[in-house]
Amino acid sequence: MIKKEIIQRNPLLNLGYDHEYILPTGGFGAVLAYAGVGKTALLVQMALHAMMNEQPVLHVSLNDAVSKVNVWYRELFHDMAAKYDSVESNEFWEKILIYRFIMTFRVEGFSVPKLEERLTDLMQQNIFKPHTVIIDGLKFDESGRGLLLQLRELAKKYSMRIWFTVHTHRHEPPKENGLPLSFLHVADLFDVLVQLAAKGPEVYIKALKGQSPDAKQDALLLDPATMLIK
Amino acid sequence: MKFDDQKIRNIGISAHIDSGKTTLTERILFYTKRIHAIHDVKGKDGVGATMDSMDLEKERGITIASAATYCEWKGYEVNIIDTPGHVDFTIEVERSLRVLDGAILVLCSVGGVQSQSITVDQQMKRYKVPCIAFINKCDRSGANPFRVIAQLRTKLGHNAVAMQIPIGLETELQGVVDLVAMKAMYFDGDNGEDIRIEAIPQSLLEEASAKREELIDAASIFSDELTEAILEEKEITPELLYAAVRKGTLKREITPVYMGSAYKNKAVQPLLDGVTYLLPKPSEVENIALDMNNNEEPVILNSDPEKPIIALAFKLEDGQYGQLTYIRVYQGTVEKGSTIVNVRNGKKVKVGRVVRMHADQMEDVEALCSGYIGALFGIECSSGDTFVSPGINMTMTSMFVPKPVISLAIVPKDNKSQMAMSKALNRFSKEDPTFKTHVDPETNETIIEGMGELHLDIYVERMKREYNAEVSTGNPRVAYRETITQRADFNYTHRKQTGGSGQFGRIAGYIEPISDAEFVFENKIFGGSIPTQYIAACEKGFKQSMAKGPKLEFPITGVKVLINDGSSHAVDSSDMAFQAAARGAFREAYLRAKPVVHEPIMKVVVESPVEFQGPVMGLLNQRRGMIIGSQDEGVMCVIESQVPLAEMFGFSTILRSATQGKAQFTMEFAMYRQVPQPIAEKIALEAAQNKKTAA
């Protein structure tokens, strides 16, 4: 029941992204928003969605400690499952937890070879093989295109898809396609781009790239607590 | 005996294992002239640090039981509780924090915020203990106090601000720059006792000014006067700055950070100044008692020596002169010869000797007044008991006591050992609420229970050393539990006719799983199908059944019982009959409610050099561990995992050999989780075998 509801209310599926995993193998997706709007929360929701489908998710955080990332998942899941029986939801939580691995790096210490080394450690010992990777906190204005190209190679090599959070700035007005200037130099590497925007207490999600041509172009209103469609 | 509350500080020293807190305490005692020579932990002189008073502590180089001591620094009386760093002894840390007004959080300048620092910090938060931080071991290779300050902010969420900057680091550590006085401090003499104050070296002037700006900026939030002085560009006096930092510290909204090296005798004295300037006096801390006459209504205590006594026994020790009870007086004055009442059992006791402790030496005093920590002789009580003046009935809030997760059978070697063992067990279970003991009625073995392998190991050792009790131990046993996974109905009739009056009772209803309580009983009987007087007997019968599962005989948890029908007999029904009916009903429903076995899962945090990350993860994985994540910390990494306790026996040896002794780990109870089917079958087989052997 919990699984069905969460999947049905997944904002990306409702925005017209009809691919089974939204991203193709080796593909890139990004959530763009100002600080504090809910980029991490939306990606954690995407991760929970994958975990519910038994697809392992590697969450790489360049900002937060493992315990804090863990709290993101726990809180969001329990918010989503609040109306269900607690025994059932706790059991389900325990069941999906094995499909998640958190890795944290300091921003300055993060590199693709290092990530690959850690991944190999996990895969060679059959501990974890990610289907989806989430990279939270990468600075796109500072990280060159080179790093993303390396990540793309890595994603293809290990048949993964990677989601990023992109922190946009209020002082930087978006171009006609809705993308900030500092992101334009790498935008072509991405298959899916979505934008989160806060209007008063409400949060809206809008597809910027990669949705099916027949899909509606309107933004969807999200529940800021769960990042599910309201 | 002075009664100036203004000049009392009750502090604890908490930290991750091996951060050097016992060494720091030793130096504090030396500089405050309580001891006249310095002995190191695992010292070559064979004396050991003063606060590690138990032989075992000296031998292993760890602090097991906290010792209390007091010292004087510049007219202030500082009561210090040295607390253990290993997580198995967490109850000791919790108990210490309960009675303290402030704490020094010791961090290693190389290791930074480590796993146990996080646990200790959570405990401080729970008891709202204001703290200052001391970054120790700045003389070590790789020392970086500012990285540790950054970790205090990111990992623990502290608003950490440096009160000092180091003059040199690693082997070049010479002293510190005091950012309040803007002076350089050097520590000369054989033991760093001579403080030389000089102008700040030119090379550090810019950094010192920048860090002072940061300090002033952070402190200004707590003081309008300071903000005013900044805006009007007036001189910022040390008094003004300390007052602002103090305000923030007491609210736990700022954490002042001191730094140095206790081992190299550098910058311990400024830390003591920090304790007296920044940590609260007893009356500044809100202490709450529960009024037993008024439905446990919370009452805020007044730190007034003239008011009725309220004191908490927070630690017991068996010394050569009988039981020594450590107490913290929250209100009133405990005088020699006065009468106090133990709230738990209502027993009146006359206070004999009153002492103040200095590790294992003591000093007789006439009285202990509110705010003081000391010890009483010849008082029979348990740890956590509250003592009050006759006529009042208040208790200090009870402490959070986790349930034991591991047990061990112990067998005494001979009769003499048997006597000594029971004496020791009686003492230990009084001293430590997480240590439990009982006799297994089936095997007749004495079972001890605790919070981890090391916890029990230490008690077995103490039995041998302190009580001459030679005991052999069985294999450690994990505290498994059973629970149900689905609803099952019951309709059970207990009927017995064996001459004389018979027994009759019928109970109907259902059992179902619940997650947030161990046992819930709900009575939905309408129309008196079971007369009201037998409902309590029904509940008792169900509760009895929870003690031991019908199949594997582990305690059962997480069950709700609802009764909605039944019947009785005017002559043959009785409490006994309904208890038996409840037990029968439970047995009937239990197996249909799909019971499963749950096992304790430990949160295991391993800190290892990055090159061993792969093998460490492999080790955890082999032990049915679920790795939550790995954290990159430069040359070191931290791997957080959840591993069944049953798989953790002997892990320390295996981890050492896999990492050339360079990794360390901490372990604490996290939760109970269902055992996978193949393992459950193995456990069932073992349980059956044990039953056979016992029979």
Helix content of chain B: 25-40%
- How many helices of chain B? The count is 16
As residue ranges, the low-confidence spans of chain A are none
Structurally, how many domains make up the residues of chain B? 5
- Mind summarizing the main beta sheet of chain A? 8 strands, mixed
Any idea of the CATH class of chain A?
A: Alpha Beta
Taking all residues together, what is the mean pLDDT of chain A? 83
Question: Can you characterise this structure?
Answer:
The complex is a heterodimer of chains A (230) and B (695). An 8-stranded mixed sheet of chain A has the order 3-2-4-5-1-6-7-8, with helices on both faces. Chain A has a single domain (2-222), classed as Rossmann fold, CATH 3.40.50.300. Chain A starts with a helix and ends in an 8-residue tail after the last strand. Chain A is built from 8 helices and 8 strands. The longest helix of chain A is centred in the first third of the chain and has 15 residues, at 66-80. Helix content of chain A is 36%, strand content 20%. In chain A, helix 3 (39-52) packs across helix 4. Chain A has 230 residues and is an alpha/beta fold. In chain B, helix 12 (535-546) links the parallel strand 33 (519-523) and strand 34 (559-567). With 695 residues, chain B is α+β, with helices and mostly antiparallel strands. In chain B, the strands form 8 sheets. Chain B has an 8-stranded antiparallel sheet with strand order 18-17-23-14-15-22-19-20. A 7-stranded mixed sheet of chain B has the order 2-3-1-4-5-11-6, with helices on both faces. In chain B, strands 25, 26, 27, 28 and 29 form a 5-stranded antiparallel sheet that branches. Chain B folds into 5 domains: 5-284, P-loop containing nucleotide triphosphate hydrolases (Rossmann fold, 3-Layer(aba) Sandwich); 288-396, Translation factors (Elongation Factor Tu (Ef-tu), domain 3, Beta Barrel); 406-472, 2-Layer Sandwich (Alpha-Beta Plaits); 486-593, 2-Layer Sandwich (Ribosomal Protein S5, domain 2); 598-679, Alpha-Beta Plaits, CATH 3.30.70. Chain B is 28% helix and 32% strand. Chains A and B meet through helix 4, helix 5, strand 3 and helix 6 of A and helix 14 and strand 36 of B. Strand 3 of chain A pairs parallel with strand 36 of chain B.
